[in-house]
Amino acid sequence: MDKARGLNKFNKSRTRTASVAIGVAVLPLAISACSSSSGSNSADHTLKIVMGAEPGSLDPCDSVYQATGTVLDQNVTEPIILRDPNTGTLSPEIATSWKSTDGDKQWTLTLKSGLKFSNGDRVTATDVAASIDRTFDEQLACGNLQEFSEGALTTKVESPTKLVVVTPKSDPILPTRLSFVQVGPESQMTSKTKLRKPIGSGPFKLTAWDAGQQITLEKNTQYSGSAPTIANVQYQWRDQTSVAASMIKTGEADIALGLTPTDNTGNHSVTFPTREVLFLALEGGVPPLDNFDVRKAIYYATDTKGLAAAMFHGAAQPATQLVPEDAVGYNPDLQPLGYDLDKAKDLIAQAKADGADVGAPITIFSEPGFIPGVSDGVEIIAQEMRSIGLNVETKLVQREQILDHLGPKPDDGVTTALLWTHGNSGGDASFTSASWWGSGGANTLFGTPEEQAKISRAESASGDARQKAFAAAAAYSYDNVLGELPLLRLEGVVGVSPDVNFKPIPNTMNELPIRQVTWAK
Amino acid sequence: MLRLIGRRAATSIVPFLFVVIGVFALSRMTGNPASLYLPLTATPEMRATFSAAHGFDQPIWKQFLDYVQDVAHGDFGTSLWTGRPAMSMVLDTFPNTLILAVITIMIAVVLSVTLGSWAAYRPNSILDKAVSALSVIAASVPDFWFALMSILVFAVTLNWLPTSGMGGAATYVLPVLALLINPVGVLAQVTRGEMVTALSAPYVKVARSKGAGEGRIVARHVLRNALAPTVTVAGTMAVYLINGAVVVETVFGWPGIGNLTINALQQRDFATIQAAVFVIALAIFILNILIDVLYAAMDPRVRPAK
Fold first, then answer.
1. pTM for the complete prediction?
2. Is ipTM > 0.85 here?
């Protein structure tokens, strides 16, 4: 009897404990039923954007960085000059006009008067000068520095609406470079630390940055242009693209950036061409890559369609040049060589007959994880090269080890090939030649004097002559040099909810002006 | 008890210092941040200026002395990536990790002790077999996969919960669930095993022969003896959770210290890495003392002799 009572007591006790445990576990579910965050975003007039990473800073001088530029560019801050992302055409923004003197070495900018920052202060030439100067602050290491390969600019304020910018050497595309400079007040632009609460003159102002969670913007009442139709914007970030895609399906986000083709948004994914090109740079000064036939054979042996499938699930197209289609200097007449192993083997045989040391080892370098499927891509290319008789090894190493092999350098005993990407977001071929094309590029592994002469001539030209000269240089490189083998033009994927109208463009990788988005209802 | 705490504190200082020094040295072996923060087009002069401005051009021993000197003054440096004080960033994120860890471990202990005890009380019953099978599955499920599946089921399909992020109570459910699965599985198995052993121990037979009620026997005698190993394992689980459950934080976009540390590593943000490891090591050090104290409170045999 006592035992039975005891068991009964224990059973009651167990039941109570289990009830508490289940209650603790289920409580949040019950709470969630009352506070589920899913629902219509248009109802509260907040556009919700999810991106791949939290910005490191919101400093205007870092606007070329994807996360920073997405939030700031043409939303919180405005550039000195506006560049049309589709055509590359420049139009007035903070500067209403610009003209060059002294052989494109001195540029005079006339600024819009009456423009105000979101804090009510007027935008003056002093602010614009400070914004330009900030780009070259070596201690800050601003991301935008990469668009100024010609060297540091000097500025001279002539009046509140007139600014003179002097370049170290002739630079006919300085206005294009200035389209990367986002303007902030002098008080912020002289700060020696990266900014987290920038003030700008754009249609929105920053309201909050809850570190690790979200950034919110609201309409800037001081904005002089037409008021945006979207009043509030919220940015979140998710490392996992599949989770960002799910947020589109559940209505937690209106736009999800940086997705992959395999992410399931429920038929709400939009694919678009980007300006990123995957290429294989070849160190053409050392055997066996010093032989043009060998370089061409590698190009023939690279199955770009297979590479696109293996690395990007097909979201990439064969490329013929590093310069994107919509940029000044693109040559539409170049055609992909195509995948032809027989031709590749013939070229290697020819090179061997000409005395080339085709058995000399080649090392393909890349950085682990810098693009999806990079390790597969490197191995596929290496295998193709081996199949035509080349001696190839692969190395995935950190960036500083790659830097050791880039640019002009004495022979280090390693014949380098590098699988990398290049994104020319400036819309002019000189942004490519500054880094990866011709012997004058900062990182280039190979170029010939003839090729560089053509590129240099193109860099100093302007207008139609510039387009023709760069296109001619591209054709020359393709037919005679092949220092960089353009492989694939990459495509981007974004998720767009049915609640909004938004069509991504190549620059969506770097900037997302909210004026490009409207509510669907 | 104070002597126990003092002894554990003394023995923990050396490994604590070893971790701090080790992280300082190892993080610098990942390379010079100048190569990451400056564009590829930057000149060697620019890289040299950047390195000098941030002290990376100094010998590592000099960098370490400067670091120790600054830490002694409460200065853990400034994040290279965000420009914010590194310790502020860490202290902003650590509570987010801690709250997940505390909720998870509390639910895990209650659930696993309940299930484990229940199963042990009726060994070889259907309930026991079910609990054993489920606990093995729970202990074996990869948390990454479980986290993604829970999003698919509860957020995308049923639309009951938000997919990710940190906000209201609803946002805690899926991360806690994903963190809970492994500890519940492991702890339920440990509890069951210990309870089965304890239930057949001579002192239980003696208690029964003296007419003690089953509830009293289980609650006062069996559980008390069986729980000590459970507490030890739960402590180990808590250490893992406080360390920042990186995978779960990453999947759910949870702004915790694990997520912060991974980002800092990717960005070669030495100051943040060092501050994060300092705080994590300190937290684990305190947690280990707490576990020892709890263990000693439950089992007088492990208390130091007076």
1. 0.84
2. no
